[in-house]
Structure formats: structure tokens, C-alpha cells
User: Fold these one by one.
Assistant:
Number 1:
Amino acid sequence: MPRRIDEISLGHPGISMNSIYLSLKHGGGKGRFPIRAAASARMQIARTAELKLGGRLVLGLSPQLEAGPATDFEPSTVERAVVTMRENSRLETGGWVVLGPGAQLIVAPGGRVALGRGTYISVGATIICRSTVTVGRDGGISWGVLMMDSNFHPVYKNEVPSSVDVPITIGDHVLIGARSVVLKGSTIGDGSIIAAGSVVSGEIPPNVMAGGVPAKVLHENVTWNW
């Protein structure tokens, strides 16, 4: 597990002006500079939205974890990290959370997102919430993952519409591999791993490795570390 975020070298000396600005505007008085942000990072938060930080929020930066050389490089070109919260939406963090360069978190009107302590959302990952997205503690969402709890359009079978928005629940210490897609109504149990390029559209039990389209259990009694 990575060290606490305030003990991790951000690789960016000092506190950026954007960190100061976003902390004063959206930090809610939670500690000293509770938001550490790259210069390009943006937070677009409606007046009626609620942001509740349980620890430091790192936005658009990639802290160096104690995981060896694989985390020691940065992409040469990335888009800005953005948090967007529409009217009456809510984002709650249970501790320090990282949204890496190019990551996007979009919470539609009335949507609810809860991110557990130690959630690491990597480069270019996107979470889109219209209902509820819950992510447990100490998990990793890898490069380019797309997670959305809605299909945005009703689908009819025998003229009966399906639910458009269905919550997503991710357990503690879950690793979602690069370029995977997590669709509405999905549940991933504690400690599980989703192989790169998978599409999750149902229930994945705890402590397994799952992969494929749609994702199915490939191995049981699986563990992983940072």
C-alpha cells in the first residue's frame, strides 16, 4: 500500500498557485492546502453541489509510490485533469485520493460518488456518474479506464424499457486494468483484479482475477500489492 499522500513526493516542488486557488475555493477549510493540483487541473463545481474531502485530493499530478520503476515515468503529453460536479451532486472522499494527469470525474445532477482512502485514479481514466458510484479503499483504477453508471438512453425489450441508471459498487483494494470498461450495475468484490481491456457488466466476486468481454472469472484466490 502506498504511504500517506502527505509523505509521498509529488515530483513538483512547492505549492502551485492552482493548488492554493482550488484549496481556498473548494477545500472547505480542510487542513492546509487540501487540494494539490497541476497548473492545468480544473474543478467545475456547481453552487448546489457538495464536495466533502476526508483527506488530501491530488489532481493532475502523479505521486511517486513505493512500487518501483513502473511508476517512475510520466506520459510526454496528457490532457488536463478535471472534476465536474453539476447541480445537487455530491463527491465524498474517505481520505487521500489521487486523480492523475488527464483523469476526469464527472458527476451529473443528483449523482453521488464516494471514493475510499487511498484510491488512485490513473492517467486518462474517466468516471461518469448519474446515479451512484462507490469505490472502496486502497484501490487502483488504471490508465484509460472508463466507468459509467448509465447508458444514457433507454433500451427496450418487448416494449419494456430497461433502467437507464444503475449504481456501480467497487470493493476495497480492487485493481482495474488499463483500458477496461465498467458498466452500469456492476459490482466488483474486495481484492479482485480486472484484466486490461475487459468489459465488466455484472457481478465479480471477491479475490478473483476476471477478464474478457464480458468479464468472467479466470482465477480464484488471487491477491495483489502495490
Number 2:
Amino acid sequence: MCQVRMTANPFNMLIGALLLCQVCPVASADLFRYIDEEGVTVLDSQVPPRYVNNGYTVLSDDGRVLEVVPGALSPEEVRERDRKLAEQRRREKEKREREIADENLLRLYSTPEDVIRARDARLASIKGFIETSQANINRLEEQQRDIESGLADVERQGGKVDASQLERIDGIENRIRQIQHEINDKQTELTDLERSFAADLKRLRELESQTASNGVASDHRQNGATVAND
């Protein structure tokens, strides 16, 4: 801040005022740079309201840029901005989910061999259930054939078919349908598990490879630092 020492003498006060005007620069208003509707760059002490949404630049009196005020976005630019933001959020969400999935996977399995052992045990259990259920269906179908054969003999001999035997056949057929439904569910589960274990095995091998690569890169950096120190 410029200061001028003055006395009470009126002449001295006048001289001091003149010196103040010469020594201390008078602050001038900022300039605004904008583009008009004809595409011409304009410097002015203010920005007309109709050009504000186009953006403008605030300049100091010596031409330095003090602030750049961007123009308002067009509807197309707003949509593009929102699309990019949505895509960025989607990628970030997928990355977080992938990191959480990797952490869970590494808590379950230490090596790819652990995945293979767990897969084989789980699939063997389901396949065993399917085989047992199919054997039960075969047994029930044989019982049904025996009953139907006996009823056919009764009819050929002109006898009356026992209603309880017909109900028994209905019960066997219902049980066969139920077991077949269970087999279908297990076969779907088997396919899903095979796909899931394959994905886990693939990812665990990728993580194992990344860990090995990072270890090699770290060793190279350490070796390089040792050579440099030598």
C-alpha cells in the first residue's frame, strides 16, 4: 500500500495529493472477453446478458486471465455428459464388485487345486443323488408294470379290477413325476455349478498369475536398485 507523508500546510497537502496520484496506480475495473453472435471476440467492461450463457473470460487491466466462466451446456452436451458419468459410475461399480468377489474367492480357496477338489466333491455328490433317484424311478416303473400286468390278467379272465390297485398305480406315477422333477433340478444345479467352478478356477489362476508378475517386477526393481547402489 502506498503512503504519502503530509503536514498540515495546505500547500504541502496539495503537493502530497499530486504525488499520491502519480506514485500509487489507480485500480481499474476488470475487463470481460466474450464472443458475440457474429463470432467476433469482444473486450468490454461488462458482458451483455444475452452472451452470458455462451461463457466469458475475466481479465485484469494488464491482460491476465483471472477467471474463465464456461458456457451453459446444450441439451446434447448435457446428455453426453450424463452418459459419460453413468458409464464411469458403472465401471466403478463393476470394479468394486470385482474386488469384493476376488476377496471372497481368496478367502474360500488358496490355490487352483483347492477349487478343483471342492468342485469334484460337490459334483460327485449331485451326480450320486441323480443316479440314486434314477434307480428309484426304475424300481417304481417295474412295480407299476407288475401291477398293470396283474390287472391285465384279471381283465382277461373276466374278473373285476381292484380299485385300490388303480390308486396304487396313480401314486406310483405321481412319485415318478416328483422324482423326475428333482432330477431335473439337480441336473440344472450341476450345470450351474460346473460353470461357476470354471469361472472361479479361471479367476483364481488369473490372480495367481498377477501376483507372480508383480513379484517378478518387484524383484527387477530391487535388483536394479542394488546394481545402481553398487
